[in-house]
Amino acid sequence: MKTMRENRHLLESLGQVTRMATALQKDVTISRERLIPLVMAFGSGASDEKSVAFWIRTTIRSFMGLLDGVSFSMRQGVRQCAKHAGLTLTPKEQGNLKNSRLPTLESMKLAFRTFPQLFGSNYKLNTGGEEWQGLRRIVKVRNRFTHPTVLEDLALHLALPALLPSIDWSSREILTLFGDIEQCLNLGPVREVPDSGVPAFRESQSPWIEVFKDEDYHLIKGDGGRTLDYVKRMFFMLSDDTKQAMDLTKEAFSTHRGLDPSPMLQFAFRTYARTLSSEIEGAISAARFFLEAAVERKRVTLSEAEINSLDEGELEDRFVAACNLWAREFGNDYVLEKSGPNWKHLRGARAFRNRITHPKNLESLRVDLDLMDTLLGAHSFFMEGWGEGLYLDPDKWAKKAGGIEEVIEREEMRVEDDPESE
Questions:
Q1: pLDDT tens for each residue of 225-278
Q2: How many whole angstroms separate alpha carbon 346 and alpha carbon 284?
Q3: Own/partner pairs for 200-205, CB < 8 Å, 24+ apart?
Q4: Inter-residue contact 110 to 116 (CB < 8 Å)
Q5: Which residues contact residue 348 at a Cβ distance below 8 angstroms, ignoring those fewer than 6 apart?
Q6: Closest among 134, 152, 111, 8 to 60, alpha carbons compared
Q7: Whole-model pTM?
Q8: Contact between residue 395 and residue 293 where contact means Cβ atoms under 8 Å apart
């Protein structure tokens, strides 16, 4: 029989997790309500492709934010209450409970296994069915477009069959878990978990198919012109999303009243931060793809430390490294400095992105109007790097990346090999 003090700790933990779920669920609801009409209208040409793509990614980001946030909150609760509840944890579990970099699915499995045990609940998360396979697919798509290494990582068609079924299943599992815990604590009648009627995901009906293979990327990197076209597509597809996120924030501001940000404005801030971070990650990857292609064609030489600088450190450090390497090899030798107010804003925006991904409490999700200055400053720093650091000098491009020089060389070889040209 637990003491009143022990029950108080457990009730506080449950309350913290349910409030976190309620707050993050609002983002999912807003995203979903914007997405569904656009998808329905797309077939008739009443909505544009860029808007549909933006809202698919935004819905996925919001959904993953819900799962990451609730799982992390549960793990925090287990750390705080395990002793009070008499729950024994292995050293590995203790380490993973506080690991802010634990992958989404591993975090979910750990949280959904240990949190119910605090209350004596027998709830079990089914990770063996097709629902879990659908969720795995959404996580994979999210990871690819959040940290894109190639253009294909931004593709969304593989997510569509699993997205709404996964949201529906995960939301019902969270409610089922809460309901079971409430029964263990005698907190009222059995919670009803509604069925939205969304058809279940079936892997056999929508198998995962990779279109590009390693040899395809080798062919792209082997030709300077193809490499440039490929990277340009990646740059501009990423920027389309961030422009839409900015427009969403402006729209939310235009209808905002009062001192405290509305749920819509908070959602817009979180969306802007997540989308901008994805664009910066993508810009780093696109620059790396371009640099590596030139290295493979023996036009550029990079040291091991320079290559590692694109992988190591925080987001802002890797972005500066990418811009400065590009500017040295292909641009105007511009040096992007880690200084100034906008550099600090970029660091602040990254910290905010991390904070809402792994919220320690409800306050971690809080958004204030000063955050707009932080996000705009971060965006300004990124645009400085994009415009100056990633500028492509035509002469350096022709010499180092190929392009015109390679075309001329191929044409001269054709003339020499063609006897009729004499």
A1: 888 899 999 998 889 999 999 999 999 988 877 767 888 999 999 999 999 999
A2: 15
A3: 200/130, 200/131, 200/165, 200/169, 201/130, 201/131, 201/133, 201/134, 201/137, 201/161, 201/162, 201/165, 201/166, 202/130, 203/130, 203/133, 203/134, 205/161
A4: no
A5: 374, 377, 378
A6: 134
A7: 0.88
A8: no
Question: Structure tokens of 327?
Answer: 């500017």
403 CB neighbour count, 10 Å cutoff:
19
Name the band, by pLDDT with cuts 50, 70 and 90, for residue 406.
low
Backbone angles phi, psi at 257, to 5 degrees: -135, 145
Block residue for tokens 């006897």: 419
The amino acid present at 269, given as its one-letter code, is F
Q: Please give the C-alpha separations between residue 410 and each of 15, 136, 227, 229, 403, in angstroms, as whole numbers.
A: 69, 46, 17, 19, 11
In order of 11, 83, 85, 131, 405, the CA distances from 8 in angstroms are 5, 13, 11, 35, 74
